[in-house]
Amino acid sequence: MITIVLVDDQELFRGGVRVALDAQPDMTVVGEASDGLEGLAMIARTKPDIVLLDMRMPVLDGLETVRTLYGPEGPQDPPRVIVLTTFALDAAAATAIRAGASGFVLKDATPAFLAAAVRAVHAGSAVLAPDELGQLFGLDVEKAPAPPPPPAFRTLTARERNVFDLAARGFSNTEIATREFVSESTVKTHISNVLAKLELRNRVQLVVYAHDNRLLGR
Fold it and tell me: What UniProt keywords are attached to this protein's entry (predicted)?
């Protein structure tokens, strides 16, 4: 069972989402909260796998909640967060993803899409496709000249750079293995090494890192 906490200040919206997710055979909503402060307390009590988090709430908004969850004072093993937002190109959502969230879902998404997003994030994938992330983060990045690669990036081996580039472009482990003529377990090892060297949590942050530093194709 994938356990979920809903954090949104609209009770009617939470109720609809809860009904939709509880109807899934592999999901259960274990708690609700109407603001980020209540949400953090609920997360501490229930330790869910996934948090669906609204961006705009009273008391403590979604962005500050993400920063708390993934900051130095947050839990040792924080849940994965899916941001709920009304706008596709939401600057607050972009900042939340940079801070550790696994992507965002529009609040008018269908129940089937939301359930698929929960499953994808639970499995370690991003909710957003790399081209969507590129659009989201390229708005302010591509206007400036490309910076030199960060020092940590230069520590990657040639094979790790190839895997990094393919992962940042959205290729799955299976597709990367085919292109690199290695096993899927070897790709997983390379991905783990890349994340460790660049001090990134997951593939979502890898994609953001690639776009922020203009590293695709280098």
Answer: DNA-binding, Phosphoprotein, Transcription, Transcription regulation
**What is the separation of C-alpha 63 from the centre of its chain, rounded to a whole number of angstroms?**
13
Q: Average pLDDT for residues 30-57, to the nearest whole number?
A: 95
**pLDDT tens by residue, 80-107:** 999 998 876 667 777 888 888 888 888 8
Name the pTM for this structure.
0.75
Q: In CATH, which of 1.10.10.10, 1.10.10.250, 3.40.50.1380, 3.40.50.1000 is domain 143-212?
A: 1.10.10.10
Chain-centroid distance of CA 40 in Å reads 18
Class of domain 2-128: alpha beta
Q: Which residues pair with 52 in a beta bridge?
A: 6, 82
| 67 token code pair | 């920063």
Question: Model confidence over 42-54: pLDDT tens digits?
Answer: 999 999 999 999 9
Give residue 81's region: left, alpha or beta (phi > 0; psi -120 to 50).
beta
